[in-house]
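From the pipeline queue, job 12 of 40. The input is one protein chain; the requested action is below.

Action: predict structure.
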Amino acid sequence: MTRSVTIALDAMGGDHGPSIVIPGAALMLERRPDARFVVFGDEKQVLPLIDQHPKLKAVTTFHHTEVSVKMDDKPSQALRAGRYKSSMWRAIDATKTGEADVTVSAGNTGALMAMSKFCLKSMAQVDRPAIACLWPTARGESIVLDVGATIGADARHLVDLAVMGAAMARVVFDIDRPTVGLLNVGVEEIKGVEAVKEAGRILRESNLPHLSYHGFVEGDDLGKGTVDVVVTEGFTGNIALKTAEGTARQVADYLRAAINRSFMAKIGYILARSAFAALREKLDPRKSNGGVFLGLEGIVIKSHGGTDAIGFASAAELGYEMAREDLMAKLREMVAASTRPELPAAQPVDAE
């Protein structure tokens, strides 16, 4: 693709709002100089920050909004108060109308999903959207979904997740047939809840053209990178994500405490500084920040609400890659090619 990618930014989203979003966009622009931005937010807070970054200002269109979605708003509250006029809604709508190729927000996850579904609508044949994230592994990275969009899943929804996750893997990893595994309590086919076992049977028998079904995977396979795509429902996926983030911080704290314990430990740190730097880089959650909303008629990226400019830049760059490599076309192709099992649809509960 030779055209530039335009990114719509919800400048008011996240714990820190424009003070993180605008520097993050400027940092991302250094790595992707052909990017363009459409920014929505309060002009009194946003424009002075844009003025501090001349290169960003030159490629940015700004739209003033007086309403912003609060981080503790329930999705229903956000829709009532912010539909058609909030910075979050208008950023999503920019992707719908074609003013932008992708939307990035660090705002309230439940509100962002609700507004995205209302504004963009779900893809044909996809009952429920999902949030997919990049997961650091011993082999590099894997894609894990769903990490919090929908609580509970039947077999049909798990199959949809497998298809959408494989489509994203084709874009991110440039693999024709990514390997896909279903997260389970064991690798044996007799283990697990019925929905997971039935989804496994469907994927095994369908032999879908653009993914290679590996079988069941367990929790430790997430870190190993056993498969390119790990599929689970949103409740389990979100707990796994938060556990991994907490463990990474815990390991970092342990290392700092061990280094400061004695003079010899500090000498050892100096001698192994490059190795510690590589470990810190690998464990840094900012480098893999950004969840992709899959199953919508448009691309929306959710950044962690508490991230800094480096983390937001990673989320914006992920959105850039998804748009530049035409994720939507690959999703439509794979969803259309997948066999839809005739199963009764469950009624999962949306995450607040």
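Job complete. The mean pLDDT is 87.
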